[in-house]
Structures are given as structure tokens and as C-alpha cells.
Amino acid sequence: MFTRTWCVAALLIVSVPAASQTVLSEADLLARLTADSPRARAILATADVDGDGRKDLVIRTGPSTLSVHKGTAEGIWAKGTTEISIPAVGKSPDVEGYVADLTGDKKDDFVLLYKAPPGGVDRTVVVISP
């Protein structure tokens, strides 16, 4: 079934070794979440984007970009990212995200619901993981 995406970054706590340069640190994560944006970032902490069985961290880092931090064997996220293009938010004030393996390839795909402003029409977009 689908996993609902919550736009509440305050609930995510990351604990990583302070000396590590190859993992995403708490400061790096907070910097990504507080970048110039009028809306909270959508976080999908349970998406397995590459099909390796590890949880990858997915953050909406712009109006038309998802950034994926790969899960590591240590149970933390890699510092480097892979970018996935999504349709721009446009006039939609909110975007809800859901993840599921829609194609049977063991990679989670994304179903994005772009909420319309009053009087508008909601949009649903499916993004297949690369």
C-alpha cells in the first residue's frame, strides 16, 4: 500500500558520527530543509528508490526537484544526492506524496498529488524511479 508523505521536518532526527565526511550530517540535513522555499519540504523517509532494500531519504529541494540520499549499510544516508525531476509546483499550494513499487521492479515510485488553490483542479502525477 502507499506510505503517506508528511511535510513536518521537525519529526526527523538524524544521528551520525561527527567525524564522517561521507554521510549526511544533521547540519547538512537542516541546511537542505531550510533552503529558500515558501513551503515545507516533503520528506519520504521510507522510499527505496534504487531497489537495494535500504531506506533512502527523499527531500523536495525545489519546486521541481526531489533529492535522494541513498541509504547505507550502516543505516544512515549518504551525503551525495541523486536528483529526480518532478513537475513544478506552479500554483499548487501543497503537494502530497505517496510511495509504492508501481512497476514491480523493487524500486519505490512516487504518486504526487498537487493540491489546487480554491476553485482549482487537483493534479495527480506518477513519477517512476529511474
Summarize the structure in words.
By secondary structure, the chain is mostly beta strands. β4 (65-71) and β5 (77-85) form a beta hairpin. Mean pLDDT is 74; it is low at 1-21 and 34-38. The protein contains one helix and eight strands. It has a four-stranded antiparallel beta sheet with strand order 1-6-7-8, with no helix packed on it. It has a four-stranded antiparallel beta sheet with strand order 2-3-4-5, covered by helices on one side.
Outline of this structure?
The protein has 130 residues and is mainly beta.
* SS elements, strand count: 8
Helix-strand makeup class: mainly beta
**Order of secondary-structure elements:** EHEEEEEEE
Whole-Å distance between the termini? Answer: 20 Å
Rg estimate, integer Å: 15 Å
SS element count, helices: 1
Q: How would you characterize the largest beta sheet?
A: 4 strands, antiparallel
* Percent of residues in β-strands: 35-45%
Order of strands across the widest beta sheet?
1-6-7-8
The mean pLDDT is 74
The shape, in one word, is globular
Stretches where pLDDT is under 50 for at least 5 consecutive residues are 1-21, 34-38
Q: How are the SSEs ordered, and which strands pair?
A:
Blueprint: E1 3-4, H1 26-33, E2 43-47, E3 56-62, E4 65-71, E5 77-85, E6 94-100, E7 109-115, E8 123-127
